[in-house]
């Protein structure tokens, strides 16, 4: 079997890992198999290709390019030589933001995976070993992302700031990483301890939303720590700074580069070292309990899920004219509720959609009054809601029970259009609309009823955007593909397609200032929608199946 | 307790939430026994096996495997156990070579030994040429053969088989039945759980019938035949589980199918 370089690297840590009570060789075996499987594509129900051994390549590694691109943002902050508290706090909060959101959305499924247990748990391998394999598996991926993200900045810092800076940077990043993993895992652990059954699954999703929101707010809070007066950036420590992690990690740089050594910086540095290590050690200590409580996720015995049938039926009738479409609307609504991995991925994104518009408003609120804002144009920020749509539309193809997709093939379905149309409508009404309506209400309170026609235009534009996303994506029938633990291959696409939304918002912004502009937009938007919602579903089922 | 007891279950109870699945199960199993472990859907067969294998926790009572209490040391006793799960769950993006050696290594075998052994067994099952193909390209029967091999590679003393013949063709079924017979003669204990009564009737030398979480019958086929009036295990099963209306249900079923 293929041996991975990373595992040989891990072998150096063997004595340390064995000290935690882990059976190292079993753990290494599990990791090896997991990494091997990540590199292999799970064939879909429809792929007729029976080639048994296509080359092993990990798509995840290819998707890291996006992170390198995003990491370029960090470079100016490691070139600057003014206030290191300021510049490094910005660097660490950006890194923390990306790593945490990626951990909770993309890797929650790995962390909460119970599939390990049925195959490996019946073998003489302890929960501790299984848990450790899982964390290391996860850490390998997170390190890959982090290294891509900070790689460019790290390299630049070696030349602009010197070797010591470079080394401290590297060490602090590792500590930050451990801190994030331990914190997230411990949070999940807490929830697993106190909740059970169906409630547990809901709570996990809510926590994801809340966590994403908190990290987004925290992210922009860092900028506020500093008062920028006369182009000089001052850092005046306050008690609540002790709770903002990026600040801890910045302190050593201030001491090294600006030789400002004070009690406060020393305290921050100690926090930066002690807290991540303690948190991680704590997590490792309880890792077997964590694994054991994961089992609760499999308890489906106590739930008789109360489903509001009538509301699903009501929307199905309201939104779908065709009976086949209505059927798939209901089918998708039912499926969605039970696809755990899908929820794990999509809910953090929902959190982001809720909070982003407000984060920007708060930011402006610092420099102007609420009155200035309410008469302004800030309500265009509601377009941020639409940012979740590319991922949402992309995700409809996935399901844990993708093997059930044989029904599409065996049923007498002539046209696949109602399948997609019904499913997309179900996803929009279940996940996008509630958030959009909530934000519309809050925005109307802030900006007044004058924005109501504009909100309608926003909705029309977002619906256009949805169809553009759908049309440009490679299509695959709903719920017909397997999740891959490290599937990331659409992030670049998401980034690019979001520009289309920005473009639509810009057109809206430009035309809204003209006389009758609003009415022109409303009519135009409706026509384009009518056209797109027809054209987009013109898919030949032959082509779909051959993919 | 004699030396021949391999599995000992005392006062085993299990609840899922408020639902009691197992109510005071007591069982003593000996070397060389093939236990036909049967019961209606949801009677608690798979739950018992999953508890013994440590996949399901939260039970009360005592379980000893080869004298070791499984709630004291949760790992070591598993070295002596082989398991074929009801649902063919395996890492199917691996090849059979990768999967089988992986599992055997977790049981503590060396790669080389496991590899040679697995390849030979694959050959005997007639699927050697697929040894390096990914399992997700296999047919159901081939997957089942891989599962059976993976449960036996480390030469366990106790086997837990949950519908082990599912998907196998008639010829393979004959091979596996004979394998089980030979293994039991060597002194291995086999837990055989299935819904196919004629097979259970033929291969087991002791039958344990579970109903609503209780053991309602325990003995050889001959003994069961004496205590109840049925001639076949299927009839005995119907009788003990109190089921005698299959004709009426079938008739109604067909009449509903007709309505479109």
Main-sheet strand order of chain A equals 1-2
Structural class of chain A: mainly alpha
**Overall geometry of chain A:** globular
Question: Biggest β-sheet of chain A, characterized?
Answer: 2 strands, antiparallel
Low-confidence spans of chain B: pLDDT under 50, at least 5 residues?
Answer: none
Secondary structure category of chain B: alpha/beta
Number of domains of chain B: 1
Query: How would you spell out the order of helices and strands of chain A?
Result: HHHHHHHHHHHHEEHHHHHHHHHHHHHH
Largest interface: A-B, 33 and 38 residues
Count of helix runs of chain B: 9
Proportion in β-strands of chain A: under 5%
**DSSP strand count of chain A:** 2
Oligomer: heterodimer
The tally of helices of chain A reads: 26
End-to-end distance of chain A: 30 Å
CATH class bucket of chain B: Alpha Beta
- The tally of strands of chain B reads 10
CATH architecture of chain B: 3-Layer(aba) Sandwich
Distance between the termini of chain B: 62 Å
Shape of chain B: globular
Layout of strands and helices, then pairs:
The complex is a heterodimer of chains A (547) and B (260).
Chain A lengths: L4 H7 L2 H6 L4 H15 L20 H4 L2 H7 L3 H5 L4 H23 L1 H4 L3 H6 L6 H34 L2 H32 L2 H25 L4 E4 L2 E4 L9 H14 L4 H23 L1 H8 L14 H11 L3 H16 L1 H26 L4 H5 L14 H7 L10 H5 L6 H31 L4 H21 L18 H22 L4 H19 L5 H6 L1
Antiparallel strand pairs in A: 1-2
Chain B lengths: L4 E12 L2 E12 L3 E6 L5 H8 L7 E6 L2 E2 L11 E4 L11 H11 L4 H14 L15 H13 L5 E5 L7 H16 L3 E5 L3 H7 L2 E6 L2 E6 L1 H7 L5 H8 L5 H13 L2
Parallel strand pairs in B: 3-8, 3-9, 6-7, 7-8
Antiparallel strand pairs in B: 1-2, 1-4, 4-5, 9-10
Helix pairs in contact in B: 2-3
Keywords:
heterodimer; A: 547 residues; mainly alpha; 2 domains; two-stranded antiparallel ribbon; 26 helices; 1% strand; globular; B: 260 residues; alpha/beta; Rossmann fold; six-stranded mixed sheet
């Amino acid at each position: 079997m293929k041996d991975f370089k990373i595992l040989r690297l891990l072998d150096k840590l063997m004595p340390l890992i064995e000290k935690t009570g882990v059976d190292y060789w079993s753990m290494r075996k599990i990791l090896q198999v997991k990494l091997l499987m990540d590199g292999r594509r799970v064939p879909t129900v429809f792929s007729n290709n029976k080639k048994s051994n296509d080359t092993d390549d990990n798509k995840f590694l290819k998707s890291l390019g996006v992170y390198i691109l995003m990491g370029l943002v960090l470079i100016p902050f490691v070139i600057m030589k003014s206030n290191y508290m300021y510049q490094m706090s910005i660097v660490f909060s950006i890194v923390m933001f990306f790593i945490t959101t990626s951990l909770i959305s993309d890797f929650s499924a790995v962390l909460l995976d119970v599939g390990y247990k049925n195959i490996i748990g019946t073998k003489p391998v302890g929960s501790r070993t299984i848990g450790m394999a899982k964390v290391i598996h996860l850490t390998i991926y997170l390190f890959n992302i982090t290294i891509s993200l900070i790689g460019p900045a790290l390299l630049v810092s070696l030349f602009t700031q010197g070797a010591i800076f470079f080394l401290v940077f590297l060490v602090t990043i590792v500590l930050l990483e451990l801190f994030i993993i331990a914190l997230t895992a411990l949070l999940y652990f807490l929830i697993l301890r106190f909740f059970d059954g169906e409630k547990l699954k809901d709570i996990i999703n809510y926590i994801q939303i809340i966590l994403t929101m908190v990290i987004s707010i925290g992210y922009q809070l860092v900028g506020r720590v500093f008062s920028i007066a006369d182009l000089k950036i001052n850092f005046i420590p306050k008690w609540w700074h002790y709770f903002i992690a990026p600040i801890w990690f910045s302190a050593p740089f201030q001491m090294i580069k600006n030789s400002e050594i004070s009690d406060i910086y020393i305290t921050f540095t100690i926090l930066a070292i002690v807290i991540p290590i303690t948190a991680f050690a704590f997590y490792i200590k309880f890792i077997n309990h964590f694994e054991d409580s994961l089992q609760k996720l499999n308890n489906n015995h106590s739930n008789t899920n109360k489903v509001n049938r009538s509301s699903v039926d009501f929307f199905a009738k309201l939104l779908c004219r065709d009976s086949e479409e209505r059927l798939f609307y209901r089918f998708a609504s039912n499926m969605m509720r039970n696809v755990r991995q899908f929820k794990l991925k999509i809910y953090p994104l929902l959190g982001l959609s809720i909070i982003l518009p407000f984060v920007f408003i708060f930011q402006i609120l610092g420099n102007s009054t609420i009155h200035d804002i309410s008469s302004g144009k800030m309500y265009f920020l509601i377009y941020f809601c639409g940012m979740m749509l590319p991922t949402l539309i992309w995700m409809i193809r996935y399901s844990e029970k993708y093997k059930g997709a044989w029904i599409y093939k065996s049923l007498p379905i002539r046209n696949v259009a109602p399948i997609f149309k019904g499913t997309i409508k179900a996803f929009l009404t279940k996940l996008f609309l509630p958030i959009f309506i909530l934000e519309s209400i809050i925005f109307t309170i802030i900006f007044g009823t004058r924005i109501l026609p504009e909100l309608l235009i926003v909705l029309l534009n977002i619906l256009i955007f949805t169809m553009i996303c759908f049309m440009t994506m490679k299509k695959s029938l709903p719920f017909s593909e397997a999740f891959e633990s490290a599937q990331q291959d659409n992030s670049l696409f998401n980034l690019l397609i979001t520009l289309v939304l920005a473009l639509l918002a810009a057109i809206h912004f430009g035309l809204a200032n003209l006389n009758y502009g609003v009415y022109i937009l409303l009519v135009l938007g409706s026509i384009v929608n009518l056209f797109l919602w027809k054209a987009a579903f013109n898919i030949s089922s032959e082509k779909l199946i051959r993919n | 307790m004699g030396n021949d007891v391999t599995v000992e279950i005392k006062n085993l109870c299990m609840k899922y939430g408020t639902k009691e699945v197992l109510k005071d199960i007591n069982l003593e199993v000996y070397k060389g026994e093939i236990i036909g472990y049967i019961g209606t859907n949801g009677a608690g067969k798979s739950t018992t096996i999953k508890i013994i294998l440590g996949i399901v926790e939260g039970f009360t009572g005592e379980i000893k495997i080869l004298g070791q209490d499984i709630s004291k040391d949760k790992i070591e006793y598993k070295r002596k156990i082989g398991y074929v799960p009801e649902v063919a769950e395996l890492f199917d993006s691996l090849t059979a070579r990768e999967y089988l050696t992986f599992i055997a290594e977790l049981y503590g075998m060396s790669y080389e030994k496991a590899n040679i052994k697995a390849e030979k067994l694959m050959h005997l099952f007639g699927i050697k040429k697929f040894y390096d193909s990914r399992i997700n390209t296999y047919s159901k029967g081939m997957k089942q053969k891989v599962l059976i091999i993976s449960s036996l590679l480390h030469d366990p003393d106790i086997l837990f088989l949950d519908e082990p013949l599912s998907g196998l063709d008639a010829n393979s079924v004959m091979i596996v039945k004979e394998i089980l017979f030979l293994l039991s003669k060597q002194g291995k204990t086999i837990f055989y759980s299935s819904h196919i009564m004629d097979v259970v009737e033929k291969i087991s030398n002791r039958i344990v019938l579970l109903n609503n979480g209780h053991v309602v019958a325990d003995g050889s086929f001959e003994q069961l035949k004496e205590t109840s009036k049925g001639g076949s295990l299927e009839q005995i099963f119907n009788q003990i589980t109190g089921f005698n209306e299959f004709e009426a249900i079938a008739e109604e079923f067909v009449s509903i199918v007709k309505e479109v």
